[in-house]
Known about the structure:
Layout: H1 2-18, H2 28-38, H3 41-47, E1 49-52, H4 62-66, E2 71-74, H5 85-100, E3 109-112, H6 130-136, H7 139-156, E4 160-161, H8 185-200, E5 213-217, E6 231-232, H9 236-243, H10 245-252, E7 257-260, E8 264-265, E9 268-269, H11 274-284, E10 290-292, H12 305-315, E11 320-321, H13 326-338, H14 344-361, H15 380-393, E12 395-399, E13 412-415, H16 422-426, H17 446-454, E14 459-462, E15 473-479, H18 502-514, E16 518-523, H19 531-536, E17 539-544, H20 550-558, E18 572-573, E19 592-594, E20 615-618, E21 625-630, E22 636-641, E23 647-653, E24 659-662, E25 669-677, E26 680-688
Parallel strand pairs: 1-2, 1-11, 2-3, 3-4, 5-7, 6-8, 7-10, 13-14, 13-15, 15-16, 16-17
Antiparallel strand pairs: 8-9, 12-17, 18-19, 20-21, 21-24, 22-23, 22-25, 25-26
Helix pairs in contact: 2-14, 6-15, 7-8, 7-15, 8-10, 12-13, 15-20, 17-20
Amino acid sequence: MKKLITILLLLGVSQLHAQIYLxxxxxxxxxxxxxxxxxxLAEKIGQMTQAERNSMVxxxxxxxxxxxxxxxxxxxxxxxxxxxxxxxQEMYNNMQAKARETRLGIPILYGVDAVHGHNNxxxxxxxxxxxxxxxxRDPELVKEIARITALEVRASGPDWTFSPCxxxxxxxxxxxxxxxxxxxxxxxxSMAKAAVLGYxxxxxxxxxxxxxxxxxxxxxxxxxxxxxxxxxVLTEEELRETHLPPYLSAINAGVGSVMASFNSxxxxxxxxRKDLLTDLLKTELGFQGFVVGDWNGINQVDGDxxxxxxxxxxxxxxxxxxxxxxxxxxxxxxxxVNEGKVSQERIDDAxxxxxxxxxxxxxxxxxxxxxxxxxxVGCATHREMGRRAxxxxxxxxxxxxxxxxxxxxxxxxxxxxxxxxxGAMCGGWTITWQGQLGEITEGTTIxxxxxxxxxxxxxxxxxxxxxxPDADYAVVVVGENPYAEGSGDLFNLGSxxxxxxxxxxxxxxxxxxxxxxxxxxxxxxxxxxxxxxxETSNALIAAWLPGTEGGTGITDVLMGGYNPTGKLxxxxxxxxxxxxxxxxxSNSGKVALFPYGYGLNxxxxxxxxxxxxxxxxxxxxxxxxxxxxxxxxxxSQMRVYDALGRMVYHSGYYSGQLINIPVxxxxxxxxxxxxxxxxxxxxxxxxxx
Length: 689
């Protein structure tokens, strides 16, 4: 009997020693191989499966245990009730507890679309969308924003964000244009590395870092007509040159996951392309993390569901994002392995990649959200960083000298429904998938920002263009309503989709008719046709989608507390007919209203009259002719240059002259008028329609 007990004890000790994967001091590779060697096929395929949280409510999370699920996600707007950080923690902890009940106790990865802050959570800091951050040209700022986002996400539980989006949008027709940093591959490249380092910290694993996901691989920003999930028609050389470099930077920065793209490349869905996901991404670029599919992206591959799974997994998708049909995915993938259509080696490779990330994150040691981080969500320090990001992202497109507004400005009118609307500043992917207007989360509107800075008695507000109150200055806020993905595609809407709304146009017209000096603030996820507003306003600022701190950051610039530095991250097309237009592409006669990199500050002259020596240009924009006059009292030289710097007009000029220049034959675009006497130069811009 004593001998039997000894044998059993030795067996127990041996079994304990065999659990290398539970030993935090063992190498990650050893832990992965030890765990993989103990897993059944069902457990492996479970790790390759991601389900949506809402789909598991009826099972009371038992599906995590039943199907050995490797991951759960919250789709846009999929939140616990109430939508608080504490409730998120409770949900996350309950799911991880259920995962620990499985035979091997493998924790889940919980993914969220935290694409401009923890944008699913009410009360979190919402930063400018990427199109605005691209205008900052500041990778260190992007890194800090990603670091703060990681803190706020981890504070609520989740350990994985489907970000950064390192697409290179090539047309403003695309509804996801604002998710990309720029049309410039080089600029996106620099931001990709910064964002990954911010999310994942110097070493992925601590409580202040989360798993990043570079998306969408590959070519999503280059689809024909900007159709979401459409077809990108490019040669391999063109695809590599424009869309690939940011991924290499993300990989070099250590990104742990990459999301396959919905789009096709030359007619074949990216989810099913082995040449992209395995040969290029994993083999050539050396990506060591795992590839996750997009929302039901596998389902879009040719063939029935089973055939689509076979093609996608063999192509290199390691984890299927199957929000509601995850059970069918598991069953069919199991059949494919048993039939020899997906090899055991391919399964092991996928699971090995996923497990490596889980060990690196430290989830086997600690998969419980920490209550000590709750105070970081939406804290004052984070909101101050949001305010800074807004200031740096604003692009001053026009200023006739009205900005900055004087400290003793008198009465300021904020006009337009979006002037007092947090949802309009945040755009899509905020609290809900599509976003929505209204007080959707905590933030400071433009009206509130000015009122807080100047006092309630000096700032009034109206959304009624039929009744404009008296004021010394007006800040008119116009722009797009929130949207996300295909809902924002413009090509099929024609030119009306590229214009401001009737209500916005009416407000600008009404304020102008009242004779109030006017600054127009444009809230949008892309450039729009703003020629009428550019002509009518005294100043115009592209504010993009600035997030919850939009009101404070915009107020800082309006009142002169910050001199704008933002430069356009996209070429601004003149009209609907001039899309697409990109600074490095052959644009077939397309015309830019503003070139890539354009942006004024308070020290620049602009389109209209400024300064002691008036240089007056009218009409502006012009079509058939332009009249120029100035206040120089001595002979000077007047020159006009096109957008490429070529001189198109030159003459001597004497004080008081009215120079009438025929411009009908000029190409549409922006021209610069310079007037020089000795060492003094005045220059202004004129638009030719």
